[in-house]
């Protein structure tokens, strides 16, 4: 599948501006954490199903302050719920951008690989008549040898 509408480049200045924008986002969220796999396993998960419970519990805490011990910090609870809502919104936005970046990267990578296999085919064909291309053809052909290149190995051009 070809994506002819993707004929673009990112200038060094634009790339730096994008990196700076990500850095600015991280600077605005200095409290972000990195969880280990163990942390993730132990942690209570709060998703959309739990959000209603959490917000109702917060409303209950605000409506009935006299039933809580002095050690229960209702204001901290409110801040956690508010921050959870903001981070959920930001996660949605970030995931949309990340998905588009990944989809575009995949499409462009596939197109680049298709063009690379065409180039390999041309080099391989030309190596039969042009001196000095056999080594290059062999080097490019390494990608298609069994067990090389990791992952799934595509069929080299002209082999089907």
Explain this structure:
This protein has 160 residues and is mainly α. It has a domain of 101 residues. It has 5 helices and no strands. Helix 4 runs antiparallel to helix 5. The longest helix is centred in the middle third of the chain and has 53 residues. It is elongated and about 90 Å long. The protein starts with 11 loop residues before the first helix and ends in a 19-residue tail after the last helix.
Distance between the termini: 18 Å
Strand % is under 5%
The helix/strand series, from N terminus to C terminus, equals HHHHH
- Gyration radius, rounded: 27 Å
Shape descriptor reads elongated
- Determine the structural class based on helices, strands and strand pairing: mainly alpha
Regions with little confidence, pLDDT below 50 for 5+ residues: none
Q: What is the number of strand segments?
A: 0
Mean pLDDT: 89
Binned, the helix content reads 55-70%
Largest sheet: none
Question: Total helix count?
Answer: 5
């Amino acid at each position: 599948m070809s994506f002819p509408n993707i004929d673009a480049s990112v200038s060094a200045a634009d790339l730096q501006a994008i990196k700076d924008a990500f850095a600015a986002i991280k600077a605005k969220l200095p409290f972000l954490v990195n969880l280990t796999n163990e942390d993730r396993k132990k942690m209570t998960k709060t998703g959309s199903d739990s959000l209603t419970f959490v917000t109702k519990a917060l409303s209950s805490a605000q409506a009935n302050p006299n039933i809580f011990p002095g050690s229960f910090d209702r204001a901290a609870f409110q801040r956690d719920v508010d921050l959870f809502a903001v981070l959920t919104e930001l996660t949605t936005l970030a995931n949309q951008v990340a998905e588009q970046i990944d989809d575009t990267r995949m499409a462009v990578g596939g197109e680049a690989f298709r063009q690379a296999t065409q180039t390999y085919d041309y080099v391989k064909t030309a190596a039969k008549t042009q001196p000095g291309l056999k080594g290059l053809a062999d080097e490019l052909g390494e990608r298609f040898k069994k067990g090389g290149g990791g992952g799934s190995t595509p069929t080299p051009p002209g082999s089907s």
